[in-house]
Amino acid sequence: MLAGLLALLGIGNDPVHADRLLLVAACDFAVAFVALLPQWARTSPNAPAWLGLPSFLVLGMSTWSFGGSASGTGPFLVLIYAWAGLHFPRWILLSYALPATLAYLVPLVVTQQAPLVLGSAFILMPIAVAVALLIEAQARHLREDRERLARIEQWRSAMMSTLAHDVRTPLATVRMVLEELKTDAPPPVSRMLDAALRQTSRITRLAEGLLDVQRIDSEGQLQLDRREHSAQALVKEALTHVRSSDADVTLEIHDEQTLYVDKQRFEQILINLLTNAARYGAPPIVVTVTRKNGQDRLEVRDHGPGIPTELRERLFGQFAVGSAEGTGLGLWIVRQLAEAHGGRAFAEAREPGVAMVVTFPSLGSKGDHRDP
C-alpha cells in the first residue's frame, strides 16, 4: 500500500513516466488487496510467503519505471525481507534470494546502468538476507517463549482447578473427625488437635482462594447480580459466616445506608477483609459504610501495628503478601471483585492500625454500570 502511494506521488516528480508509475501503483495496490483477503487465515501459515514473489516483481518494475534508479528499490526490498523474517522460517528467506536478486539486477541491466551500480547488489542482498535471518531468529525465540508460557499457564490452571475442587471435600471430612475427637480429648491431646484444626483451616483457605483465582481467570470479567441492599443488613448477614473467634467487630453504619452490589460477591469481599484484619491486625475491628460523591465506601479498620507505606502500594497484588497464616490471595480477590463492580480497593494508614477500603458506585451515580 505504501509503495503504491509513493508511486502516485512520484508522478509529480517524473510526469514523463506517468503511465509506468500508474502501472506500478496499480500493481502495488493489487498485491495489497490480495494480502488483505480473509482467505489467508484458512490456509497454511507459510502460504502468504507467495506474496513475496509479486512484490519483488513490482519492485523491479518500479526500478525500470524510474529509469534504473534503485534508490527506492533497496529499502523496500529490505522491508519485504523484514516482513518475511517476522512470519516465515529460514528456508523461505533463503529461497527469496534468487527472485529478489533478479528483481534488483534485471531492471538495472535493461536500463544499462554502470557496473558500479550493478555491483551494489552484492552488498544489498547479503545485508537484506542477514537482517531477515536475525529477525527470524528473534521472532522464533519469542514464539517459543510464548508457547512455553502458554503450556505453563495451562498446567497451572489445571493444577489450581484440581486442588480447588478435589481437596476441599476430604478436608471437610478430616476437620469433622478432628472436631469430634476433640470433644472428649484430654488437654494435651486437645492442644494437638487444635494445632491440626488450624492447619486444616489454613489448607481450606488456600483451596478456596485458589478456586476464586481460577474462577476469576476463567470468567475474565465476572458476571454480577447487583441489587440495592440495606448496608447494615448486608454486613450483619456476612458476619454470620465469620467465626466469633476470628474477629471482634464493631459496626458504624447508618440505618438508611444502602449498597448497590452483588450480595454474594460483597460477602466475599467483607469476609476476606475481616479475616485479614483478624489475622494481621488487632481489635477492635470497625466496619464502616458511608457514601460520598456517588461512591459507597466500605472500610474495615483494625488497631494493629499498621502496614509500611511501601507494602501498601502492592498489598492487593496476586501473591503479593503471604505468611504462615495466609496465602496472599485474599486481598487480590478483593481487588478483582471491587473492580468488577466498577470500584477500587486500597489501604489507608490509621493511627493506630490500617483501614482496608473498597468503593462501589452508588445506585444511579455516573459510575453505576447497571447489569442487564
From TrEMBL:
Subcellular location: Cell membrane
InterPro entries for the chain: HATPase_C_sf, HATPase_dom, His_kinase_dom, HisK_dim/P_dom, HisK_dim/P_sf, Sig_transdc_His_kin-like_C
E.C. numbers: 2.7.13.3
Major site of localization recorded for this protein: membrane
Gene3D superfamilies: 1.10.287.130, Histidine kinase-like ATPase, C-terminal domain
Keywords: Kinase, Membrane, Phosphoprotein, Transferase, Transmembrane, Transmembrane helix, Two-component regulatory system
Residue stretches making up the Histidine kinase domain: 162-364
Name under which the protein is recorded: histidine kinase
Organism of provenance: Paractinoplanes lichenicola
Top-level taxonomy: Bacteria, Bacillati, Actinomycetota, Actinomycetes, Micromonosporales
